[in-house]
């Protein structure tokens, strides 16, 4: 039976700022910013949310056409470490945008951060910016990456004291996170920037710490990725056969052998998959190729999690979700994870379509600055109008060739 949920609380002023995943109390549940913003959609339990979890690496997806494992209490215990916070602020869908229910199209913002322990929590940019669109037919899911270097008008953001300005879009996260804004503020400012640029507002969001993905992939065992072009790692080397960050490898004083990702399809362990998905130097289309590689990784994780009955194993299920708790911060509209997970069904990874912006290559404005092409802006307009399937049919060149 569906679980009824209530509207989110309208204010979050009493909550402390967030600096990173570790700083967020797992039990915290919050609402979108209050004030004079349009009324936000009331949230209810809906099986559609299972489809959204596919792009979170499938680690929250409990079922794929099979019976769910364990009780709601078990799921609640397993998901207790996954933090839920207000990541959208004023960029959430209003009632005027069809926010009364989840019967219509669903748009989610996925932000990948490459946070490492030695970096300050408020000095991290979001280099992976992905929009997930699910049409009102609920029979398909699309992933669209926004180039990290796209010039954007970033609005003023009171929480972090940012006065607004023009910068690369990945700087929006950093600007919102500074001065106590934390990762929550970073996500909110990013969401507002994207809404201003594309017109798309959101039903929910997730911050994905790519470093935390390693544990998820290791729990899965490995993932199958297809390397389109050989690339030497800019970040890691082998020391005595052991992969290490270059900064740590240099400290050993021993011989360093570069990690090289060879062309072809192969099974990758967590560290290798993550390292490959981080690369952009040496790739023909730089960040655009990296975008496609990261989309491929997300789809590969979804596929692996639903293969060979992995999600019918209660022990493996708990391990996956606990690993996810270290990799994700979610905004699910205030719906408790255990409630919507328990009665949902997921989609398979084959129902994910990966799309390219700017035809998969740099699009300059004549002054050396990167901008979204007219075709890409038209694609985002199709997202807003829930006509993306029609757009893709008429513009098949936007479909990524990665499998």
CATH architecture of the largest domain: 2-Layer Sandwich
What oligomeric arrangement do these chains adopt?
Answer: single chain
Order of helices and strands: HHEEEEEEHHEHEEEHEEHHHEHEHH
Biggest pleated sheet: 7 strands, mixed
Q: Trace the largest sheet across and list its strands.
A: 1-13-7-2-3-4-14
Question: Helices and strands: which structural class?
Answer: alpha+beta
Q: What characteristic shape results from the CA principal axes?
A: globular
Query: How many discrete structural domains?
Result: 2
> Could you report the average pLDDT, rounded to the nearest whole number?
74
How far the N terminus sits from the C terminus, by CA atoms, comes to: 36 Å
Number of strands: 14
Relative helix content: 25-40%
Could you tell me the CATH topology label of the largest domain: Nucleotidyltransferase, domain 5
What is the highest CATH level, the class of the largest domain?
A: Alpha Beta
Total DSSP helices: 12
Give the uncertain stretches in residue-range form: 1-70, 342-347
Describe this entry's structure for a reader:
The chain is α+β, with helices and mostly antiparallel strands and 403 residues long. The chain starts with 48 loop residues before the first helix and ends in a 9-residue tail after the last helix. The protein has helices at residues 49-53, 72-78, 171-177, 182-198, 210-220, 246-252, 270-278, 286-305, 314-325, 337-342, 374-384, 388-394; strands spanning 83-84, 106-113, 126-134, 141-145, 151-154, 165-168, 204-209, 223-227, 231-239, 242-245, 257-261, 264-268, 328-331, 352-355. It is built from twelve helices and 14 strands. It folds into two domains: 28-220 and 308-398, Nucleotidyltransferase, domain 5 (2-Layer Sandwich); 229-262, no CATH class.
